[in-house]
Amino acid sequence: MELNDDQLLRYSRHILLPDVGVAGQACISDAAVLIVGAGGLGCPVALYLGASGVGRLLLADGDTVDLTNLQRQIGHATSAIGENKADSLARSVRAINPEIEVRPIRERLDDRMLREAVERVDLVVDATDNFATRHAINRACVRLGKPLVSGAAIGFSGQLAVFDAHRADSPCYHCLFPDQIDEPEMRCADAGVFSPLVGIIGAMQAMEALKYLARVGEVRVGKLLLWDGLQSEARVVKVPRDPACPVCGPRQAG
Question: Which among 141, 172, 188, 248 is annotated as catalytic?
Fold first, then answer.
C-alpha cells in the first residue's frame, strides 16, 4: 500500500530506521494479525502492533475483565471490569490508533472458528495461558501455513518462540512441547505472576511479529528464549524440528 501524509508522519520513527523504511512500514500496514488472548501477554502485543500500524487486528478472548487482572493487563481500565476482554482491549487499541481496523472476537475459539480466523490473517500471536489452546492454535497454523509467535509467562519466568510453517527447518509448538493428555499446568491464578514480566514477553512477541511482517532482522525461528526475571538474564536454546512430529512431520515430508 502507499502511505498517506498522516501515516508517513505517524510512523516516521519506523521509517527513519534504514532496515524498515517506507517499504517495511507499508508491509506492516498491509498486514493482518490474529492475537489469541487479551490478557497479560495479549495487551502489550495488541497495543504495540496497533500503535505500529498493523492494518487489521483480530483480538480473540471469551473472558471478562476481573479486578485481579488489572495488576498486569495494561490494556484494561478499572471501568472495564465485567466487560469482555476483546472488546475492552479493542477500545484501548483504537484510542491509540483509530485508523486501523480492530475486530474483537468475543468467544473462545473452537477448532472451526480458529481455522477460519487463522486463514484470514498473515501471522498469529499466541497469548493464551493453557496448553490445550496453544496446541489447537499450533495445529491450525501448521495446517494453513501461517507463522506463529508464541509466548508464556508465570511467576518470574517467561518464554518466547517463533514457528514458521513456510520454513522446512522450522519446528512447531508440538515439537517443543508434545501434547500430553492431562498435562499439568500452572496458571497465574494459582502461582502468581510478576506484573512487568508479561510486558517484557509481550513486547518481545510484538517485536518478533513486526520484524516478520516488515521482513527485517533475524526472526527467532527454531530457538526458545527463556527469561529469568529474578536474575534479569536470558538463555536461548535451539529447538530442532522433530521429523516424527504428528503435527508438522507429515507436512514436511509431503
Answer: 188
